[in-house]
Amino acid sequence: MAKILFVDDRLGEIIRQWQLSGCASNHELLLLEPFDSIERTCQMVDTLEPNVVLVGYGLGKPNITGADVVRSLRQGGYNGNIIANSGGGAEQFNRAGVEIDGTANRNPRDLKMVVDNLTKRR
């Protein structure tokens, strides 16, 4: 069972994606709150210790993207899986020069597939 943390500003979409994915039967959804800041996200990751972090690209804050969050998490020592969860897919993150471990594309089926595949390797 993996612990899953979403970093996003669209909680309604995230809740729908989670509920429709079927992930709840095998994984734990951690604290769900709208994206506030990179510092808050890093604090949550340090405290909650998720195995998987799903990051949206547009986070509703000026001059901050999901790529900035990924960069900060990796620089802070997070070694878990990071999954892009954006309508724009992995390309947005790749163009920003950050590596991700997979993409869920805000799609419930893709979420289940990528989370299950990544957590099987653990």
Structure overview:
- This protein is an alpha/beta fold and 122 residues long.
- 42% of the residues lie in helices and 14% in strands.
- It is built from 5 helices and 5 strands.
- The longest helix has 13 residues, at 108-120.
Summary keywords:
5 strands; 5-stranded parallel β-sheet
Proportion of residues in β-strands = 5-15%
Give the count of helical stretches: 5
Low-confidence stretches: none
Number of strands: 5
Instruction: Calculate Rg over CA atoms.
Output: 13 Å
Spatial strand sequence of the major β-sheet: 2-1-3-4-5
The shape, in one word, is: globular
Helical proportion, percent range: 40-55%
**Spatial separation of the terminal alpha carbons:** 10 Å
The run of helices and strands is EHEHEHEHEH
Q: Main sheet?
A: 5 strands, parallel
Look at the structure and give the mean pLDDT: 94
- Which structural class do you get from the secondary structure elements? alpha/beta
At a glance:
The protein is an alpha/beta fold and 122 residues long.
Topology diagram in text:
Elements: E1 3-7, H1 11-21, E2 28-29, H2 38-48, E3 52-55, H3 66-75, E4 81-84, H4 90-95, E5 102-103, H5 108-120
Parallel strand pairs: 1-2, 1-3, 3-4, 4-5
